[in-house]
Amino acid sequence: MISKETLFALSLFPYLGFLWFISRSPQIPRLGLYGFYGTLVFVTVTIPAGIYAKVAYGEALANIDWLHGGAEVFLTLSNILLVLGFSKAVQELRNR
């Protein structure tokens, strides 16, 4: 059986492929694209935060509120960028 850590690491490759293809599309709103890249930043921040939580506290990241919340800020910002970017794109299409 594959571990959740291995599955998590392997899931980065399809997401990187997704980012590569979507960044070449002229139809994707720039702000939305930044949101998708922000998700990658969230993952990049979460991995060392999870390691620190395990080493410093002997706990999973989800059990260390201040550290978990700090990492989740990046996901929240990514989601905001996605919503704003695609919302603007929808409004522009409606105004045509």
What's the β-strand tally? Answer: 0
- The ordered H/E elements are HHH
Whole-number average pLDDT? 93
**DSSP helix fraction:** over 70%
Let me know the largest β-sheet.
Answer: none
Q: Oligomeric status of the shown chains?
A: single chain
How much strand?
A: under 5%
Shape label: elongated
Helix/sheet category: mainly alpha
Protein name: DUF3593 domain-containing protein
Transmembrane segments: 6-22, 34-53, 73-90
Keywords: Membrane, Transmembrane, Transmembrane helix
Describe the overall structure:
The longest helix has 30 residues, at 65-94. This protein has a domain at 30-96. The chain is mainly α and 96 residues long. It is built from three helices and no strands. It has helices at 4-22, 30-57, 65-94.
Give a concise summary.
This protein is an all-alpha fold and 96 residues long. The chain is built from 3 helices and no strands. Helix content is 80%, strand content 0%.
Output the keywords.
mainly alpha, 96 residues
Write the layout of secondary structure elements.
Layout: H1 4-22, H2 30-57, H3 65-94
Keywords: Membrane, Transmembrane, Transmembrane helix
Pfam families: DUF3593
Transmembrane segments: 6-22, 34-53, 73-90
